[in-house]
Amino acid sequence: WTLVWLPLGRISAHYEISHNEGWNAYLQQVVADGGRIYGQAPVYTYANYPMLSFHLIGLLGKLTHDVNVTGRWISLLSFVALAILSGLVAGRFTGSRRCALFSALSVVIFIGTMKADRIGMNDPHLLGMALIAFGFYAYVRDPESSLWLRLSAIAFVLGLFTKQTLLPFPLAVAIQ
């Protein structure tokens, strides 16, 4: 808990964690207000991330009336989902609950020590990673099931429409 205490404590803070938050919040608010981010060629600003996180957090931000805090909560929930899904994948490969727990804790420790600024930050990276992790879990859960393969493909597409740089896992699954 000591590794994620600061990120948890700043979720409702009224300041930017990084310059990325203001930029993301701006585009999310455009969506929340009914604007179109990709409706025309950019003039002064541009969106260099795909659209899913802007639309998801923008629409949820309409309910909460604060896109930045909504994005931070999505990031925190994605962090938790990423740890759980990593544990599920390791458990699936090894058949060991101990290995699954160790894997989940390793994700928490690694991100908590190396990239703690990402936890609870309004940025699409952890959301994209969680979607890709679910896609990989769906693939390894039952690679012979058409349902799980479809879920895997959908999760991979959603992950890539959240953060386009997360291509290695979908590519590896496609090659395999």
Report the structural category.
mainly alpha
Shape: globular
Portion in strands: under 5%
Ends distance: 37 Å
Average pLDDT, rounded to a whole number, is 89
Give the strand tally. Answer: 0
SSE arrangement, N to C: HHHHHHHH
What percentage of residues falls in helices of 4 or more residues? 55-70%
| Poorly predicted runs of 5 or more residues | none
Number of helices: 8
Radius of gyration over all CA atoms, rounded: 17 Å
Largest sheet: none
Protein model, in words:
- The structure is a single chain.
- By secondary structure, the chain is mainly α.
- It has helices spanning 5-9, 19-32, 52-64, 67-94, 97-114, 125-141, 146-160, 168-175.
- Helix 2 crosses helix 3, helix 4 (67-94) runs parallel beside helix 6 and helix 6 (125-141) runs antiparallel to helix 7.
- The termini are far apart.
- The mean pLDDT is 89.
